[in-house]
Amino acid sequence: MKLSFSGKDLYSGFNLVTGIVPSSALKSVLKGVKVEVKKKQVEFVATDLEVLVKYILSAGSCEEEGGIVLPAIRVNNVLREWAGNEEISVLIEGCNCTLRSAGGYFKIAGEDFLQFPEIGKIRTGGFVEVDGEIISDMVEKVVHSVSTVKVRSMLCGVFVRIIGDDMVMVAADGNRMSTIKRKVNNPEGVSMEGIVAVKCLTFMQRFVSECKGVLKLGMGEQQVYFVGERGEIVSQLIEGKYPKYDELIPKKNDKRIEVGRNELLSRVRMASFMTNEEYRVVKFVFKQGKLLLSSKTSDVGEAELEMAAGYDGPDLEISFDPEYVIDALKVSDSDTVTIELGDGGGAALFRTGYEQMDVIMPIEMK
Amino acid sequence: MSHIKILPASVINKIAAGEVIDRPAAVVKELIENSIDAMASRIDTYLEDGGRKMIRISDDGVGMDAEDLSLTFQSHATSKLLNADDLFAIHTLGFRGEALPSIGAVSRASIISRTKWALQGAEIAIDGGVLERMKECGAPEGTQVEVRDLFFNVPVRKKFLRTIPTEMAYISEVLTRFALSYPAIHFTLMHNTRTVFNLPPVRETAERIATFFGDEMRNNLIPVFLREELFTLSGYIAPPFFDKANARMQFIFLNGRYIKDSAIFRAISESYHGKLMHKRYPIVFLFLQIAPSEVDVNVHPTKTEVRFRNTATIYNYVLSALKEGLNKSAPKSSATTSFSQRTEKELTKAGDVDFIRGSLWEQFSFGRTSETKDMKGNEDVPLSVSSISNRDTLIPPNKEEIAPAIPGKHTEENPEKFFNTTRSQKGAYAQTPGARDWKENVFLAEEINKKKIFFQIHNAFIVEETDTGVNIIDQHALHEIILYHEIERNMRESQSLSQRLLIPEMIELSLKDFFSIVSIKKYLEELGVEIDEFGQSTIVIRTFPQILRHLSGKEFIESLLAELSDENYLKGKDTILNKLISIMACKGAIKAGQRLEPQEIEELLKMKESIHAYTNNCPHGRPTTLFFSLDELQKQFKRK
Ligand SMILES: Nc1ncnc2c1ncn2[C@@H]1O[C@H](COP(=O)(O)OP(=O)(O)OP(=O)(O)O)[C@@H](O)[C@H]1O
Ligand SMILES: [Mg+2]
Question: Domain residues for A163?
Answer without folding.
Answer: 128-246
